[in-house]
Amino acid sequence: MKKHSNILILLAFSTVVFFLACTKDPEIPVNKIVYKTKNVVVVVVDGARYTETWGLPSRQFIPNRNAMLQDGVMCSAFFNNGYCFTNAGHSAITTGVYQFINNSGLELPQHPSYFQYWLKSTGRSSSEAWIVATKDKLAILSDCLEPKWQGQFRPNTDCGVAGLGTGYSEDSTTFMKAKNIFVTDHPRLMLINFKQPDQAGHMNDSAAYLQGIVDTDNYIYQLWQHLQMDVFYRDKTTLIVTNDHGRHTAGHLDGFVSHTDNCDGCKHIEFFGIGPDFKENYICNKPYDQIDIASTVAELMGFSMPTSNGKVIRDIFR
Questions:
Q1: Beta-bridge partners for 28
Q2: What is the largest CA-CA distance in the chain?
Q3: Any domain includes 7
Q4: Residues 162, 233, 111, CA angle at the centre, nearest 5°?
Q5: Distance (Å, rounded) from C-alpha 270 to C-alpha 55?
Q6: So what's the pLDDT on residue 260?
Q7: What's the rounded Cα separation, in Å, for the pair 49 and 197?
Q8: How far is CA 76 from CA 18, 70, 197, 225, 308, in A?
Q9: Shortest CA distance to 67 belongs to which of 210, 224, 193?
Q10: Containing H/E element for 219?
Q11: Does 10 map to a domain?
């Protein structure tokens, strides 16, 4: 009888152990995917309309990205469904939250960015996460107002001439800064902002606006080639190209000069991606949002970002 009791106790204990082993911890997924991506670079082409990039049938102003599409993905229905200003758009990209924010660099995002989440979760140095921008006001992206996060886990920044309040630099300078930082610091997360399409648009200079799109396309191609020649980045890096906002379409009083409303020209933006975990030569027609970039970066880099309102752009994954 005692022998049977011991067997029953052993069976009951085994059942409990099995149940606990199979119970999913909400903070630690049981079968978490490990991606090939170890580094993510997000390039923001400031103020370029979709109609001059992927929406133009010839794609004549983005020939390099058009050629790179054979190894990458493009989302044809990608939108800024928040506020069509520079700081608001960039904040949505990095935090995964649409926030109405002062556009002059006088206000921090409310929520932590994927840079802060990654730095906290990995314990890595700030030199492994960088924000490099032609516009000085984008230095705000390195911090937030959330009390538990403010002033902590901040990425390095090189924005404008010499930081917040120093004015805009040139895209050619930003390109060289980013390239040098890839060599010296080997960051695993980087955001790069190129201003020229937006600045030329505000000046009502259509020729300079289009040339800014062409020049940025060249910078993106050269950066990607540079990364492929570095064993630290080759086959382990995902590049995402997007916009903070577009521009007005025909019918507005000032033409394409501004970008402040809900017209398709302002809302419809670019999403191009290339990397070891994305499909190849693939166009995704399912609608996605600007805030989905933050959640997608978090997914690729293997950390949780609970404050993001975005979703992972799973349709573009292999």
A1: 25
A2: 94
A3: no
A4: 50
A5: 9
A6: 73
A7: 9
A8: 46, 15, 20, 25, 23
A9: 224
A10: helix 206-228
A11: no
Question: Which of 286, 297, 278, 290 lies closest to 42 in space, CA to CA?
Answer: 297
* Amino acid of residue 85: F
DSSP state for residue 154 in the 8-state scheme: P
Q: What is the DSSP string of 270-292?
A: -EEEESTTB-SSEEE-S-EETTH
147 sits in which H/E element: none
The answer to whether residue 284 sits within a structural domain is: yes
Helix (H) or strand (E) holding 179: helix 171-184
Let me know: does 244 contact 90? Beta carbons within 8 Å: yes
Q: Which helix (H) or strand (E) holds 100?
A: none
Please give the pLDDT value at position 174.
Answer: 98
Q: Answer yes or no: is 21 within a domain.
A: no
How do residues 4-55 score in pLDDT, each as one tens digit? Answer: 444 444 444 444 334 334 433 333 333 478 999 999 999 999 999 999 999 9
Q: Which domain holds residue 285?
A: 35-316
Query: Residue 20: how many CA atoms within 13 Å on its side-chain side?
Result: 6
With a CB cutoff of 8 Å and minimum separation 6, the contacts of 247 are 47, 48, 49, 201, 256, 257, 258, 259, 265, 266
CATH number of the domain at 243, please: 3.40.720.10
Please choose, from the candidates 43, 101, 83, 132, the residue with its C-alpha nearest in 3D space to the C-alpha of residue 246. Answer: 83
Estimate the share of the chain in helix, then strand, then coil, as percent rounded to the nearest 5: 40, 15, 45
Give the SS3 label for residue 116.
helix
Residue 129, beta-bridge partner list? 189
Which amino acid, one-letter code, is at 226?
Answer: H
Q: Quick one: pLDDT band at residue 256, thresholds 50, 70, 90?
A: confident
Write the single-letter amino acid at 189: L
How many distinct structural domains can be found in the chain?
1
